[in-house]
Amino acid sequence: MNDFSTAEWHDAPPLSKEAFEAAIRAVGEERYHDKHPFHKMLHGGKLNKGQVQAWALNRYCYQEAVPRKDAAFMSRVHDRELRREWIHRIHDHDGLGEEGGGIERWLVLTDGLGLSRDYVTSRKGALPATKFAVEAYVRFVVEQPLVIAVASSLTELFAPAIHRERIAGMLENYDFVDDSVMAYFKRRLAQAPRDSDFALSYILQHAYTRAEQEACVGAVRFKCDVLWAQLDALHQAYVTGLIPPGAFTPGEK
């Protein structure tokens, strides 16, 4: 039975809030993408510049999708206070006023790696699996009940540790990386805990039944799968060497 089926939990009593939160956190311990071999290679200095470029180029697709999924989420929300809280996520990525936002900081990273902004933002060189994965995430947030859509953001609970590891590992191991290109991750050290604290509190309060709680846990698994699938695709293309037709080829851009 898939992660979002509720029939088997129809008559089960709800978990306590403590047990529910523990079940959410256990997903990260089991399957967050800090355990993926490509991630370990990236942070351990085992990739060449072309492979790091490929990672940054493909990850842009995910960064670009985040404010779109948040805008789609907000379009469904009638609770004004929830919209007021959620809208800052769009500002965090797209920017507001003179603040360029996370996407701009990501483009500073790809600039520093020697990639053309036009090429990055076109997404033409991104792997097919990357594009399928990120659009599946957007569709999930569009289609699932609001509390489950909120739960899918909770990989942010596990993000600060990976950001700290990424900053230290990449600065130590790559001479083509400096502080300026790590600005995205440094900002997320403060943003991710704020966002995850709110989202966790929201689902603890609004997932009333055991079926809803289990669907929320399934949503976190799904989001981990989205992140894992992107690294699978990168490993297949740029470590194994099976680059799909039309995808970025190191040395050509």
From TrEMBL:
Domain Thiaminase-2/PQQC intervals: 23-232
Pathway(s) the chain acts in: Cofactor biosynthesis; pyrroloquinoline quinone biosynthesis
Keyword Oxidoreductase in record: yes
Catalytic activity, reaction form: 6-(2-amino-2-carboxyethyl)-7,8-dioxo-1,2,3,4,7,8-hexahydroquinoline-2,4-dicarboxylate + 3 O2 = pyrroloquinoline quinone + 2 H2O2 + 2 H2O + H(+)
One BP annotation, GO: pyrroloquinoline quinone biosynthetic process
Keyword Transcription regulation: no
Superkingdom of origin: Bacteria
EC code: 1.3.3.11
One Pfam family per UniProt: TENA_THI-4
Entry keyword set: Oxidoreductase, PQQ biosynthesis
Entry's Gene Ontology molecular function annotations: pyrroloquinoline-quinone synthase activity
Similarity-based family: Belongs to the PqqC family.
Biological role: Ring cyclization and eight-electron oxidation of 3a-(2-amino-2-carboxyethyl)-4,5-dioxo-4,5,6,7,8,9-hexahydroquinoline-7,9-dicarboxylic-acid to PQQ.
Protein name: Pyrroloquinoline-quinone synthase
